[in-house]
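# nightly structure sweep
# worker-07 picked up a monomer target from the shared queue
# config: single-sequence mode, recycle default, output format = structure tokens
# input follows
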Amino acid sequence: RVLQGQEVVDQAQAWADIGTVGPDVPSAVKRILEAGDTLQDLSEEYFVLLGASSEMGPLECLLNMGANVIAVDLPNRPKIWQAMVELAEGSAGTLTIPLRDTVSTTDPAAVAAAAGCDLLTETPEIAKWLEGVHPGRQLCVGSYTYLDSDKFARIAVAGDAIAAHLVDKRPGTTLAFLLSAADAFVVPESAVAMATARMGKLWHSAVNTASLGKFLAPNQHLEVRSEAGETYHLCDGYATVQGPNYALAKRIQQWRAMVARDAGVRTSINIAPATFTMSVEHNNVTFAISRAVSTFEPIEVFDKWTTKSIMTLMLIHDLKHPEAAGNPEVPLATPLQLMAATAVDCGVWRAGVRLGTTGEVSVMIYSLNRLLQKIGLPT
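# output follows
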């Protein structure tokens, strides 16, 4: 089902009411939708997408809203590049791509065959190209790359170098990042209250006790006091299945966002929900976890297009609305609150159990449900 107008706001509010998203998400959605072309017309906006073909990235949404996209993605993937070119041709936006060879035709297949660049091995060349592309225009540099294992940390460093270079060389450049809820964040007191209210379910406690504390641990948020006496709450949402390289890569992006905003750079850095992407669905373990983790209210794994749509709205809000946390003129008690604003954390912060202790139990629940379905019993 496709939601439009007030239906989108109502759905965001329904998520907020149970704690699947932050309480400020519905108001951000409403601001964008009510503003109409004032905020939704992106015909004068230029977005550099590092990892343009990312399943979680905003490519399609931005093009459909008339944005000008500069795509950076791997070479030797003609089908992916051709799909992006054809997508742009059928949209209200424009697409600028790097070509490795001279192309004398506008045929999408020929263009796609010559397109692409490697962020890991051609970082300086990409930075220099972007320094001169569309001169006189302000760029928003969005980092949407992902690679397995240690390559993710390495490509995050490459993206960081490019972002820092463009901020330095092209005044007015803004930055954009997507984070995962499977990390540690400063969270609002309302999240702590919701999580606390959901703790103590009998079967959660039984599993936790039987596993000697390994599974379904209470989602107790760590309380930290600053030197000024202010109290903050930290949510440990780490999922060990993602590994240390994933955590490091995302930490690099958080550091860049905080440093850039402190220097006066408008920055969008939003927590995106767990999503049914191809990489999730093609891995038996992550697929099983994603299918069953919603057992732990209010956690919900989002459809890919739902994630793309709502995160694009959060991106536009951050970059164009004066009250957005990404605006350096908006005061924050701590830079860490930048990540907490308009968080679509899919319920990780407000669940009664800690995310990192739900994986094995989710797999067992999924397997049991599959067995019951096969023998015709209700799940």
